[in-house]
Design brief:
Blueprint lengths: L1 E2 L2 E5 L6 H11 L8 E5 L2 H10 L4 E4 L17 H6 L4 E4 L2 H6 L4 H13 L3 E6 L3 H5 L3 H10 L12 E4 L13 H18 L2 H6 L2 E4 L7 H5 L6 E4 L6 H12 L4 E2 L1
Parallel strand pairs: 2-3, 2-9, 3-4, 5-6, 6-7, 7-8, 8-9
Antiparallel strand pairs: 1-10
Helix pairs in contact: 1-2, 7-8
Bound molecules: 2-phosphoglycolic acid.
The site of 2-phosphoglycolic acid has 13 residues, from strand 9.
Length: about 250
């Protein structure tokens, strides 16, 4: 099975509308990539950026509500995103878990709504430094998967971003071997609990201080299918270089 690298940027709460537009306009001038490219942008920029994005670029959301519709002030639902043709969203990013109290139970509800509304989720999982130091990494990852991917019949396609919390925005990256070992663990979990074909078609991205210096060695590992990139996706030249790295590592076999 051939799996293309996915270079996914996560802008978080950065950029003004003008800055966002200039970035996407500049992307229109690069050759259509061989790899897949996605940018998760603030909700309010989704529509204006969709209107000017090159065809090969997926403009995604960073979050969805755990409710479908109704009196939930300030929330944006998967149904609403679907109505403006949004194809993908991050779910369960560690900053949502850490600062906004998102539990695995809430993340499970969000995933179900994403599946129902055909918005492809990128489920973010990862251990804290303390959990790693206490040798709990695999236990935490298994729990994060098992508590949200419970009903095999309702699970449609998704991607997973393995983001060790201690590596996010810190400049400290997991080594390629540390990352590969957890990616392989995730792959095996999907194979054993859902199916081998599901595991093969699920891209497992690495996130956590991924940048132009380390992306090539990370993306070259057998079970690393690309990156979820925060800081290094904000600068146009750096994001363009990450796309070029993704282009050179296409057709990865799982
Ligand atoms: P970072 O963020 O690349 O700035 O570490 C990654 C993420 O949080 O998705």
């Amino acid at each position: 099975m051939n799996v293309k690298i996915l270079v996914a940027g996560n802008w978080k709460m950065n950029k003004t509308l003008d800055e966002s537009i200039s970035f996407i306009e500049a992307l229109n001038h690069i050759p259509a990539p061989q790899c897949e490219v996605l940018l998760a942008v603030p909700f309010i920029y989704i529509k204006p950026l969709q209107d000017i994005a090159p065809e090969w670029l997926t403009i995604a959301a960073q979050n969805i509500s755990n409710q479908d519709y109704g009196a939930y002030t300030g929330e944006i639902s998967a149904k609403m995103l679907r109505s403006i043709n949004v194809k993908a969203t991050l779910i369960g990013h560690s900053e949502r878990r850490q600062y906004y109290g998102e539990t695995n139970a809430i993340i499970k509800e969000k995933l179900q709504l994403a599946f129902q509304n055909e918005v492809m989720p990128i489920l973010c999982i990862g251990e804290t430094l303390e959990e790693r130091k206490n040798n709990l990494t695999e236990h935490v990852i298994e729990n994060q998967l098992a508590s949200v991917l419970t009903n095999a019949d309702a699970i449609k396609s998704l991607h997973i971003a393995y983001e060790p919390v201690w590596a996010i925005g810190t400049g400290e990256t997991a080594t390629k071997d540390q990352a590969e070992s957890i990616h392989q663990f995730i792959y095996n979990w999907l194979k054993d609990h859902i199916s081998e074909s599901f595991a093969k078609q699920t891209k497992i991205l690495y996130g956590g201080s991924c940048n132009t210096q380390n992306a090539e060695e990370l993306f070259s590992m057998p079970h690393i299918c690309g990156g979820l990139i925060g800081g290094a996706s904000l600068d146009f030249d750096s994001f363009k270089q990450l796309i070029e790295i993704g282009n050179n590592i296409t057709n990865k076999n799982n």
